[in-house]
């Protein structure tokens, strides 16, 4: 859950009401705190546990427990990479300076215009709300471009099939099956069950959902990070250095301008004769 603008952490919950704060995307690394110990304590007392996280966090839980108990169900979200908390702080500092206000909350996937028209909504202390398309948003664009991602993520061992968890969740962006017409604006989820435990658990809820079974090849085509990590970004170190010296926004705008120039040169290559 997100308990502050700079703090995302794993917490233990019971019941649907307690789970509500855990919803929504959070493009930050979560602090695991003592959650592994809490999971172990619940398992040791005979309770069933559903643990959610990203692949490396689930691998860490298995290593901590030194086993995969039958009463543990794991669910991972397909991960692009882990962004730098330092760069997030630099972004917020630059944004607050530019907008002259204190940021109190961010909704990374605002769906007020629909699932495919992703916006980022930023809430300020004075009541202002700024919404921006995620494709042109400085922090989100820097993240998806790999400029602020952890270098080790490009060698992630958990972006593969079968997945390390029992169940994997992701957006099914390019789905065009029988459920598309009625659900295109609300969102369609991809669910991959990698173990018999995952299949059994998912089947318990299937009657409550609109589902269609599709070939795994279709899922991989829609969600490349099911099977391979995000590529490395050669300009990452330069971006970090520029952000430290000139500020996050200036570094981002310089990168975007340079990218547009390079794209223009590529399009012109072979068309200009001297």
UniProtKB/TrEMBL annotation:
Signal peptide: none annotated. Pfam families: FrhB_FdhB_C (PF04432). InterPro entries: FrhB_FdhB_C (IPR007525), Polyferredoxin-like_ET (IPR052977). It comes from the Bacteria. Residues 47-205 form the Coenzyme F420 hydrogenase/dehydrogenase beta subunit C-terminal domain. This is Coenzyme F420 hydrogenase/dehydrogenase beta subunit C-terminal domain-containing protein. It comes from Desulfosarcina ovata subsp. sediminis.
């Amino acid at each position: 859950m997100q308990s502050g603008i700079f703090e995302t952490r794993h917490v233990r919950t019971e019941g649907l009401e307690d789970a509500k704060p855990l919803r929504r995307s959070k493009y930050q690394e979560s602090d695991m705190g003592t959650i592994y110990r809490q999971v172990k304590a619940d398992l040791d007392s005979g309770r069933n546990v559903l643990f959610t996280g990203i692949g490396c966090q689930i691998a860490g839980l298995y290593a901590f427990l030194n086993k995969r108990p039958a009463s543990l169900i794991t669910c991972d979200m397909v991960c692009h990479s882990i962004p730098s908390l330092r760069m997030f702080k630099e972004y917020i500092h630059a944004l607050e300076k530019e907008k002259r206000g204190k940021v109190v909350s961010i909704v990374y996937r605002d769906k007020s215009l629909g699932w495919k028209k992703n916006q980022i909504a930023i809430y300020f202390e004075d009541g202002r709300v700024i919404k921006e398309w995620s494709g042109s948003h400085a922090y989100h664009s820097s993240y998806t471009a790999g400029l602020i991602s952890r270098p080790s993520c490009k060698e992630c061992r958990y972006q593969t099939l079968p997945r390390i968890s029992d169940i994997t969740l992701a957006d099914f962006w390019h789905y065009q099956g029988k459920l598309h017409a009625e659900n295109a604006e609300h969102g369609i989820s991809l669910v991959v069950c990698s173990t018999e435990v995952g299949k059994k658990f998912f089947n318990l809820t299937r009657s409550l959902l609109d589902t269609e079974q599709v070939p795994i090849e279709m899922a991989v085509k829609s969600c490349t990070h099911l099977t391979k990590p995000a590529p490395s970004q050669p300009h990452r170190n330069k971006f970090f250095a520029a952000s430290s010296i000139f500020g996050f926004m200036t570094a981002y705008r310089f990168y975007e301008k340079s990218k547009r120039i390079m794209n223009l040169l590529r399009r012109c290559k072979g068309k200009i004769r001297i």
